């Protein structure tokens, strides 16, 4: 089954929410944990225990594991195995991007059939050109995995590249959205090549069109970054049905107890569902 199909089914069952696992030092300290490998493991596995059986998608941020070297990467591998066992889908937030054989190696790592680092999907940076992602797009499709392509991020520096216009007058971001749409053409019920668009991006409808994407829209920014569930309709308009809101600190801050994490995730799901009228 394709990633898009599995995502559609699970969102219908569990609600439209992706929870990030971002074990940065401030959150570890808030949980009373040391900023070391033991703290990382406790934080991560507690989050997986709490949420893998209840939310649709969990997104570990690879950088927070990689900073501890091989032991941290081993914790990431444990997390991905636990997410899979709990029934949620995993998105490895790695934001990789390169060309040729190097991109093919990233594809093996994050979309290979037997790779312990491969989640159900991975985030990628397309700014070496969308075509540079071809090895990953092809391998992910062959193995039923998904890809989320950066398009419109909410950091102020992103506009320098993402809002720049090409010869046809399109923004770079729109070119990436259109390229993703071409990958998803004809897919039912949803394509497996998504885009990342921040929930705090303003003026989206005036400059960019997501109507033909036919794929998921991963939207970080709910909670600590300032966006609310109510902002989603204003930002995404008619594309709201394909939006997968991401919340990290808003949910993780309710730890370290399993019940607190589950309750925070459930509140967020309900707030999104109320906006969508579900």
Automatic annotation (TrEMBL):
Q: Which residues form the Orotidine 5'-phosphate decarboxylase domain?
A: 16-264
What Pfam families does UniProt report for this protein, alphabetically?
OMPdecase
Question: Which GO terms label this protein's molecular function in UniProt?
Answer: orotidine-5'-phosphate decarboxylase activity
- Asked if Calcium is a keyword of the record, the answer is no
List of catalytic residues: 95 (proton donor)
EC top class, in one word?
Answer: lyase
Identify the keywords attached in UniProt to this record, alphabetized: Decarboxylase, Lyase, Pyrimidine biosynthesis
Name the catalysed reactions.
Answer: orotidine 5'-phosphate + H(+) = UMP + CO2
Name its pathway: Pyrimidine metabolism; UMP biosynthesis via de novo pathway; UMP from orotate: step 2/2
Listed EC numbers: 4.1.1.23
- Alphabetical GO biological process terms: 'de novo' pyrimidine nucleobase biosynthetic process; 'de novo' UMP biosynthetic process
The family this protein is said to belong to: Belongs to the OMP decarboxylase family. Type 2 subfamily.
Q: What's the protein name?
A: Orotidine 5'-phosphate decarboxylase
Origin species: Kineosporia babensis
Gene behind this chain? pyrF
């Amino acid at each position: 089954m394709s990633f898009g199909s599995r995502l559609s089914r699970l969102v219908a069952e569990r609600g439209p929410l992706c929870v990030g696992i971002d074990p940065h030092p401030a959150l570890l300290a808030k949980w009373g944990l040391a900023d070391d490998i033991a703290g990382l493991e406790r934080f991560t596995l507690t989050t997986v225990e709490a949420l893998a059986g209840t939310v649709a998608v969990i997104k570990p941020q690879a950088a927070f594991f990689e900073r501890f070297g091989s032991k941290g990467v081993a914790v990431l591998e444990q997390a991905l195995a636990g997410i899979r066992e709990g029934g949620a889908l995993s998105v490895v937030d790695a934001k990789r991007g390169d060309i040729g054989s190097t991109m093919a190696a990233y594809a093996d790592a994050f979309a290979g059939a037997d790779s312990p680092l491969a989640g159900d999907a991975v985030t990628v940076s397309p700014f070496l050109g969308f075509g540079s992602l071809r090895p990953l797009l092809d391998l992910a499709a062959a193995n039923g995995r998904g890809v989320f392509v950066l398009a419109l991020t909410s950091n102020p520096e992103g506009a320098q590249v993402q809002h720049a216009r090409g010869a046809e007058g399109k923004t770079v971001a729109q070119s990436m959205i259109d390229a993703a749409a071409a990958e998803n053409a004809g897919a039912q019920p949803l394509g497996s090549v998504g885009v990342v668009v921040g929930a705090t991006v303003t003026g989206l409808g005036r400059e960019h069109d997501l109507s033909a994407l036919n794929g998921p829209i991963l939207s970080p920014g709910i909670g600590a970054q300032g966006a609310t569930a109510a902002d989603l309709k204003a930002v995404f308009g008619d594309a709201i049905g394909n939006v997968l809101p991401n919340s990290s600190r808003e949910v993780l801050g309710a730890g370290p107890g399993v019940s607190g994490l589950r309750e925070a995730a459930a509140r967020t799901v309900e707030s999104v569902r109320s906006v969508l009228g579900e």
